[in-house]
Automatic annotation (TrEMBL):
Organism of derivation: Amphiprion percula (Orange clownfish)
InterPro entries the UniProt entry points to: C-type_lectin-like, C-type_lectin-like/link_sf, C-type_lectin/snaclec_domain, C-type_lectin_CS, CTDL_fold
Signal peptide: 1-32
Name assigned to this protein: C-type lectin domain-containing protein
Keywords assigned: Disulfide bond, Signal
Keyword Disulfide bond: yes
Residues annotated as domain C-type lectin: 36-153
Amino acid sequence: ISLINLTRSLLATLSFVSNCLLSALDSHCAQGWLLYGDHCYHFETEAVKNWQNAEAHCNSEQGHLVSFHSQEELSFITGLIQQSPTGISLWMGGHDSVTEGGWEWTDGSPFRYIRWNAGNPDNYDGEDCLSILVSNGYWNDDKCENKRGYICKRRGEKSCSNCC
Ligand SMILES: [Ca+2]
Ligand SMILES: [Ca+2]
């Protein structure tokens, strides 16, 4: 094998591998999930569950109830949920059931970005679960036993099926 041919085949291999890696870096989502950034979001606006069962359902799909970390991420969601057949609000992954007033996300991410609706959180009659008002995207601490639609979030898939 000549040096030129060897170089050519090395370059071809390198280019194949780099194309493969580049396409593998693009996140994508399974059917029924919407991509934003590196994550996929699923809106359950037809069946209702209490907060715990909604989180369990997201877990069964390798995700958690949604967490929010920026105005941009929230705007992406509120742009899609101006109304919902399941009612005025949808479950998110926030709760303060461990420590009253100590809010955390079920996906373990830091609870920093907040967008409380006026007068909330009020812990009215012991509200420990977080819901988002579909009309304006603001948040309410809500009764965990209420049955609501919900939003699941999980990491986008980075594997590529066709290219490698
Ligand atoms: Ca509470
Ligand atoms: Ca409340």
